[in-house]
Amino acid sequence: MSGLPKRQRVAAYAVILRDGAMLLSRLAPTVTPDELWTLPGGGLDHGEDPRDAVVREIHEETGLDAVVGETARVYSAHLPGVWRDGRRVDAHALRIVYEGWVSPDAPPPQVLEVGGSTMAAAWQSVADVLDGSVPVVPMVLEALADHRPFRHQRLGAYALVRRDGAVLLTRISARGFHTGSWTLPGGGVDHGESPRSAVLRELREECGLDGSVGELVAVHDDHFSGTAPSGRYEDFHAVALAFDVVVDDAAEPVLTEVDGTTDAVAWVPVTDIESGAVPVLDLVREALRSPTT
């Protein structure tokens, strides 16, 4: 095989996961007569940045606008004697594989490229890929085995506001991971921001209320994996600080967040929480165990 023409190709691809499925492209009959799926991506144009190339290729192959991470894995494959452009060549493929994600409300994938190397795009079950129900090129299994979810640790500050046997809660919207559950008003602490300032800012942003911050009443942490509001699949560790907060007796909450992770605010009777009639996060129960001030 040493006398064959040498061909080297550099291509960029992305592993894009969502709710137990991964985005794949089906190779066209001009590439293989059999059904075979691969990661969305393709060859770099001369002078093109790999991250720009994979975003471009994903759009051409799936019609979706993707975001890719800063780091990647590189795979090298020496393929002597393979067919390329109608003849046998001594091929060397360098494949740069990124983590990628698309918006949770992205439309179904569809191929935009005409006459290219892919004929279809779809979300395929990861379980079906792993057990062989969906036939894939070896690169897909190799990339899946090496893939690790993005690790995100977040510090949040939350308000425990009580009034007449009820507690002020916010409901998590479809953009949040625990959709439909109720939690304390609050959210992430910005870089350089004090937790006490953060809890008042979040209370104002989510409920339209001003208050005064008292003692720290609970420290809670939660560790889970899932799709973030950005669409990125994350290994998420949340550390929550709950503070006792007092608001004016006549103040009433108003939902002020639009298209965010909160879709309702309300005074919820503690008895409804204790009976399980209202689904709440563990943070709420832990904070309520603190002594009433």
Automatic annotation (TrEMBL):
Gene3D superfamilies: Nucleoside Triphosphate Pyrophosphohydrolase (3.90.79.10). Pfam families: NUDIX. Keywords: Hydrolase. The keyword Zinc does not apply. Residues 7-146, 152-290 form the Nudix hydrolase domain. The keyword Ribosomal protein does not apply. Belongs to the Nudix hydrolase family. This is Nudix hydrolase domain-containing protein. It comes from Nocardioides conyzicola.
